[in-house]
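To close the section, here is one more complete example, presented without commentary so you can practise reading it yourself. The ligand is iron/sulfur cluster.
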Amino acid sequence: MTSVHELIRDAAEREAAATTRGIGRPSAAPHRRPIALRATGASSCDTGLVRDPWAIDQDPGYGPGASADDEIPGAAPRQGPLPAKYTDASDEELTEWIRAAKEALGERVRILGHFYQRDEIVEHADFVGDSFMLAQAAKEHPEAEAFVFCGVHFMAETADILSGPEQAVILPNLAAGCSMADMATIEQVEDCWRELTASLGPAESGDLQPVIPVTYMNSSAAIKAFCGRNGGIVCTSSNARTVLEWAFARGQRVVFFPDQHLGRNTAKAMGIPESEMPLWRPHLALGGNTEEQLRDAKVILWNGFCSVHKRFTVGQIEQARAEFPGVRVLVHPECPAAVVEAADGAGSTEYIRKEIEAAAPGSVIAVGTEINLVNRLQEQRPDLTIFCLDPVVCPCSTMYRIHPAYLAWTLESLLAGETPNRITVSEAVADDSRVALERMLAARP
Ligand code: SF4
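Output:
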């Protein structure tokens, strides 16, 4: 049987040959490497992945990659054009400019890199982590004047909320939103709340509120603030269960924004039956439910999802088990419930990292999460065989928007005394968001 390593090597060779011939790289600058295809050489979910992000930033949609089918909200920011100096530069030039600017800026500027970023970004990061770890890193470095957040919009907002008022948080490409976060707007959430509170009426028993709002970290600052104002809380994929327990100590039911899968997987693990988890579809009256269904609910799930994690299927797990008997399957809880049930373990990015760190040499591990992270984990543990469950390369298309050209432009702008793409959360929203975040930090299992 052909091993995953052989498949990867063969495909990488094919890709290298195609690149040498100039195939599939219509807008690439000299020596520019196709981004996701370079990682494994396997087929990709969208041929547009060979295009540079500035070729798609102006298009209506999230562009190539996992979020290709998501509708981009009209209000989502668009990135202005990058100077040709950066779009025409080779990889080597960009790396050199980034290193030089970073060195000149010193400790005044810190680069934060999300786990799902491409390697060409991560190599320059001062801190690498998930969204909350990076926001905490911003909080813990009051000496820095600016943070360049190589992640997506909601993450930069959280870093701005937790960092000092004089510290700037910069998103190198404003088109780097998050399709999941954008599936819940504050207007839709407020409409939902009005309908819910009107249908559920006042508290029925004791001190328990009729409903507690809980939002995943992957949501706008406005929604975090909404939760802070309305007795609610924020959660991460690491502490979702603890947060739901916190909420059930205060309310009869929960409304969970915006990821239905994290909400459902967490509630199922707590023994809540699916029949008590209605889905709230924001364009329908009562979210498409009856008043009775809402009254009988324990967790009302917002109809949002992560385009990357919803691609994983039970069929992929079955195939991995058939091809690699003894394979361990680890998935992220943003995957559908059937996938989480079929896996050997489910947890946050940090959980997956730690499980791989602790794996015995020679282990074979199939992972259901973002491809850039999976490839990096394999590089870090060459003694293991680690592969992505999805045979099709499909990176997060919004993370993909942070290209070294944007990072070089951002750092050189800072050197020139400019502060481009600063993400600022208003004081009122930041104050209310902090209430919800602090409740999360104080929540104990
Ligand atoms: S991986 Fe999913 S949740 Fe994370 S930034 Fe991309 S679209 Fe959003």
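Once you have examined the tokens, check your reading against these statements. The radius of gyration is 22 Å. The chain has 18 helices and 13 strands.
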